[in-house]
Amino acid sequence: MGNMKLTLKVWRQNGPNDKGRIVDYPVNDVSEDMSFLEMLDVLNDDLVRKGEDPIAFDHDCREGICGMCSLFINGEAHGPGRGITTCQLHMRKFKDGDTIYVEPWRSTAFPVIKDLATNRSAFDRIQAAGGFVSVNTSGNLVDGNAVPIPKDDADKAFDAATCIGCGACVATCPNGSAMLFTAAKVSQLSLLPQGKPEAKRRALAMVEQMDKEGFGNCSNTGACEVECPKGISLEHIARLNREYLAAVVTQE
Amino acid sequence: MALDSKIPPGPIDKKWTYHKGHMRIVAPANKRRIDVIVVGTGLAGGAAAASLAEMGYNVKAFCFQDSARRAHSIAAQGGINAAKNYQNDGDSTYRLFYDTVKGGDYRAREANVYRLAEVSANIIDQCVAQGVPFARDYGGLLDNRSFGGVQVSRTFYARGQTGQQLLLGAYSALMRQVGKGAVQMFDRHEMLDVVVVDGKARGIIARNLITGEIERHGAHAVLLCTGGYGNVFFLSTNAMGSNVTAAWKAHKRGAYFGNPCYTQIHPTCIPVSGTHQSKLTLMSESLRNDGRIWVPAKLEDAQAIREGRKKGSDIPEADRDYYLERRYPAFGNLVPRDVASRAAKERCDAGFGVNKTGEAVYLDFGAAIERYGKLQANVLKIENPGKEKITELGRAVVSEKYGNLFDMYENIVGENPYDHAMKIYPAVHYTMGGLWVDYNLQTTVPGLFALGEANFSDHGANRLGASALMQGLADGYFVIPYTVGDYLADDIRTGPIDTKRPEFDAAEKEVVDRINHFINNKGTKPVDEFHRRLGKVMWDKCGMARNAQGLQEAIAEIRQIREEFYRDVRVTGKANEFNQELEKAGRVADFLELGELMCVDALNRNESCGGHFREEYAEMEGPQQGEAKRDDANYAYVAAWEWTGDAGKANLHKEPLTFEEVKLTQRSYK
Q1: Of B428, B447, B482, which closes a domain?
Q2: CATH number for the domain harbouring residue B515
Q3: Which of A104, A181, B420, B538 lies 20 to 30 Å (CA to CA) from residue A252?
Q4: Which letter does DSSP use for residue B313 in this model?
Q5: Which of B:126-155 have CB within 8 Å of A?
Q6: Does A124 contact B69 at a Cβ distance shorter than 8 Å?
Q7: Distance between CA A102 and CA A7 in Å, rounded?
């Protein structure tokens, strides 16, 4: 075990209808090699031994790719550090004696389930509205190399496709907008020949669903790009806007 | 019950075609009257749920995560194999089949493996059509790289995030069906039992993880696509939530468990840093394309490094032992995973480990950076580039290929892997064992199917890199859509399954009783404590090397932990709320039974094969000294275990493996 002592100020909320409050927890013996979530594990272990309710938080892969972990740490989505998720944040980023605020994603569209866990199903519904290529499973498609795709396009599509759907963009946006998330998918598919036929319809449908879910509007603050653990660029929002505008103009 | 693998007749390359032509199918109008439950939404489950809904079945899909997109397939890094032969390097369906059977140390079913190789090319086409952004070359065509245990380049990839991209492809297909109402999606739901009616799987009992409500869901067939059980070791590269519960409950309802002892220990993971460790992180096998693995050749150097008196870079070339290149010149650093892992353990056990715990070896990119730097200088027509320039150019190339992995390493370890060789050590990664299935992917319970890592079928005793993604998608997209129809053809007149039947009552009561036991138990220790203890026993005695005495001890220790667990576990909170401790308790309870069965299986198999290495069964002399020694005369079979009420007293059933295409030989990578 390590030798850092910390004070955590953690948001506790017993369900969506509870008012919620910040509770203080001292944590001792924190090692700099621990991940942030491992530090919470240590705290929870202690709480359970005392018969207290452990802090609920979402997490799964713990290697920065599943998108399940969240946490607003000292006012930043996924905490200090760029290009990482909370599970990749290690305690060497903190100092002995630090006080750390830990809160859930805050957004109307992401209601709190318990403590730090929120419901992000709105993202699934945006995806279901049009985030796909309409192709059925078939063993008779054209060969994967039948349509060459310029490397630059493939690379850009990949950059957009690395979105992990964690919701940091929404949590960090002053308007609670889901534009970066939505744009990443629209952009990925519109950059590829396979996604082009449905590009307009997709942009319209996904934006419509996004609005329906109660996400705010985008006012180009750029905060989302800064906090995105995968570095998804604002360029994709620009591409979504172009696709959307073209779709609206040519709509029948 | 005698095991019938239902392998179709005919020559190996005609079996699947013959079978597809002779299976029964369900007419489109009748598919609308049939319900199918898919548990798990990874590559196998996501692909199956989407494909079956496209065909017209009513699908209910379940996952414990908050979204279908988070299933652990997402974390696969390196790539997916397919016999496309785009590189014109001699690849073919047959060669992929052969490599997989050999890589699995001749413990897989030939017919299944051939089918897997056969449909592999379709997978790439399907994924490209869905908009999966695979890596491409400047001509716009798909790029490939090489993986362990093979001598061709057949691995397709999307930087170090291939699993993510393939899963998001399957997820998008699934969400398209959700949008249409063809799939009802139940996220944050955990399956806690299978319901068997008149000998057939007819539904599941699931817990809504947000409200704690226990739900009954009926269906004409149940597909388990619930992944592997590597978390029985507590520390593994699996996600924290990955568990065996669905498969284990199925086992207790009559599904045989196949080869539970076959575990894959991946050679290149970030070493354990302390007792707080919650999981281990993989560094993709693709790194072995360019990284060279070594330890110091002299014990005193290794000791100096461990004590911090020397660094890896202080050791001159002549004093380094590139032990894989030395022992296996033909395959070098790209030997299969089981071989590479054991070789690392052998060196560390001999005292050559290079970190504080003595359990780490170097994975060094120095040579690759220099080689790529020189090549790049030629490309850019830089004359007489200095050493610094070469390093700079080389780093850029390495970063383009593996940048995200290097970043991940630096985040965790706090050391830059461009300047200092990475330190790696083997960790539990994948389980080849799983529910026994026949050629149709059906378990021994009619109507209950198992796909992907959850079944035992395609990888024998060791899986080759980039084959897990291939199998998950093959099962989900291209196998189950055919084979489930053959089974469901009898159900077109059954009508909806009545969930008020007594079988549902009984199953639900068992689930509720188990939950109440945990909630009401007056214990003192958290679930994780028992899980860690189980994991340590499994790693020490049923891990990379096993022996009869250790396995017998392990069985006794696991039984002891299990007894203590039920007596002394403390689960806080209530049953009818979001309760993560309760979720963990149920999963660990099942691991505590499975762990024992794994040891029983490992003890029964008196040979070494693939990931199962029994110390008593190794070559003692000759050119293969120290390598695994199979016993084909006595153990060329699948061990399928039947639950009898006690994990230690499971009944063994044997499915003999016959090899008509591939000649059984000792696996040699020398």
Answers
A1: B428
A2: 1.20.58.100
A3: A181
A4: G
A5: 126-142
A6: yes
A7: 11
Instruction: With beta carbons less than 8 A apart as the criterion, state whether B340 and B293 touch.
Output: yes
Q: In this structure, are B508 and B422 located in the same domain?
A: no
CB contact under 8 A, A151 and B140: yes
* Residues of chain A positioned with their CB less than 8 A from the CB of B240: 59-62
- Whether residue A117 and residue B139 make contact (CB cut-off 8 A), yes or no, is no
Instruction: Record the tokens describing residue B263, joined without a space.
Output: 């575990």
Could you tell me if B539 and B633 lie in one domain? Answer: yes
Set of chain A residues whose Cβ sits within 8 Å of the Cβ of B67: 67, 120-121, 123-124, 165
Indicate whether B389 and B534 sit together in one domain.
no
Domain CATH number, residue B401:
3.90.700.10
B321's CB contacts (< 8 A; 6+ apart) are B294, B295, B296, B297, B347, B352
Of B70, B119, B276, the CB nearest to A67: B70
Query: Based on the domain organization, do B413 and B550 belong to the same domain?
Result: no
Fill in the DSSP letter of residue A197.
G
For A17, the token pair is 């209808």
List, for residues B206-228, the tens digit of each pLDDT value. Answer: 999 999 999 999 999 999 999 99
Is B159 in CB contact (< 8 Å) with chain A?
Answer: yes
Domain count for chain B: 2
Q: Which domains does chain A have, with CATH numbers?
A: 4-113 (3.10.20.30), 121-136+143-250 (1.10.1060.10)
pLDDT over 80 at B1, yes or no? no
**Does residue B33 lie in a domain region?**
no
pLDDT tens column, A180-204 = 999 999 999 999 999 999 999 999 9
Instruction: Match 């660094």 to its residue by tokens.
Output: B311
Q: What is the pLDDT of residue B396?
A: 94
B415, B272: one domain: yes
Contact B80, B466 (CB under 8 A): yes
* Distance (Å, whole) CA A58 – CA B110: 42
Say whether residue B284 is in contact with chain A using an 8 A CB cutoff: no
Q: Is the pLDDT of residue B667 over 70?
A: yes
Supply the ipTM of this predicted assembly: 0.98
Nearest residue on chain B to A65, alpha-carbon basis: B75
**Residues of B with active-site annotation:** 337
* Per-residue DSSP letter, B546: B
Let me know whether B422 and B565 are in one domain: no
When the pLDDT of each residue in chain A is averaged and rounded to a whole number, the result is 96
In Å, what is the CA distance from A76 to each residue of A105, A178, B142, B470? 10, 17, 39, 38
Whole-structure pTM value: 0.97
Domain termination site, one of B428, B461, B490: B428
Structural domain containing residue B520? 504-656
pLDDT digits (tens, 9 = 90+) for B76-126: 988 999 999 999 999 999 999 999 999 999 999 999 999 999 999 999 999
| B21 interfacial to chain A (CB closer than 8 Å) | no
- Distant-in-sequence, close-in-space partners of B563: CB < 8 Å, separation ≥ 6: none
Identify the CA nearest to B462 among candidates B339, B346, B551. Answer: B339
Q: Are B223 and B57 in contact (CB under 8 A)?
A: no
- In order of A95, B445, B455, the CA distances from B498 in angstroms are 59, 19, 28
